[in-house]
Amino acid sequence: MNGYGDTMVQYTERMLQQWQPGQVFDVHVEAMTLTLQIAAKTLFDAEAVQDVAEVSQAIDEVMEQIAVRFRRPFWIPDGIPLPSNIRYRRGVQRLDQLVARIIAERRDKAEDRGDLLSLLMLACDESGQPMGARQIRDEVITMLLAGHETTALTLSWTWYLLGQHPVIDAQLAEEVHAVLGECSPTVDDLPRLRFTGQVVSEALRLYPPAYAIGREALADCEIGGYLVPAGTTVYASPWVMHRDPRWFDDPQAFRPERWDGNLAKQLPRFAYMPFGGGPRICIGNRFAVMEATLILAAVAQRFRLEWQSDQPVQLMPSITLRPRNGVWVKLVLRPDRSPT
């Protein structure tokens, strides 16, 4: 994890070198590109810009079509050649081809390169058998999607909230300056970046990327007096629970300071669950929080992201909670800071 932290900061600072004061752009696109590059490096030890661009486009196509399916009142089989189905299949095929190529290239050199793919390819079960090609493919695509999409969304919604609350943004910048000075953030700095972490926790409360989590009943059961037949998918919504006034005072307000103290320990289990819960809680939760906090600190050292209110943000619920049309900001240089 410490090595991953160094990679996260290195890639963030490389991105910041391209940013200039006064620029106006969609910071969601920037966040998606950055976290995808970090995921490619930590998962595959890959830096190919073309691969990252192809993956990004394929993911966008797949996620957009899944959002369409969520809103559709009836099921349409994938085989029907509708334009939306064609785009969906094309996106999935691109992801499959890219991951299959990376796996094939790495199979010829079974070595530990310090990334997740190395661990998967070198792992064996109790009988000494390695993972099959299909299982590795499924694990890699799951990690690739979950390993960048959710963190990028956390950052996008965080910058959206900070853009509407300049006092909180100034408080964040003050802490970052006090803790880091002119130095780059590191994993060792995280315990002292308390308010920065609270900002991330509060953004995850208000805009959880996994806004709804489904579980399939394996047997007939009863939940809250309702009969749930086997095979039924039951959804729990962190979006709803995180805004419940029973657990959070003034639940619609962006108040990072609410996490100062023992709130996290006082809450009932699952009242706050941005990464799910139970035995299938997101395996990358520590990775994601560390990444979001380090990136947020590195950006806050140099720039204030001024939200462009003439570009309204709309919710786009797909598998994750995306900002439709992005989050448009203007870069404002922090006082006494140079762009580089």
UniProtKB/TrEMBL annotation:
InterPro entries referenced in this protein's UniProt entry, alphabetically: Cyt_P450 (IPR001128), Cyt_P450_CS (IPR017972), Cyt_P450_E_grp-I (IPR002401), Cyt_P450_sf (IPR036396), Cytochrome_P450_Monoox (IPR050196)
The UniProt record lists the keyword Oxidoreductase: yes
GO molecular function, one term: oxidoreductase activity, acting on paired donors, with incorporation or reduction of molecular oxygen
Signal sequence residues: none
Superkingdom, taxonomy of origin: Bacteria
Cofactor(s) the protein needs: heme
Assigned keywords, A-Z: Heme, Iron, Metal-binding, Monooxygenase, Oxidoreductase
Record has Iron as a keyword: yes
Listed name of the protein: Cytochrome P450
Native species: Microvirga aerophila
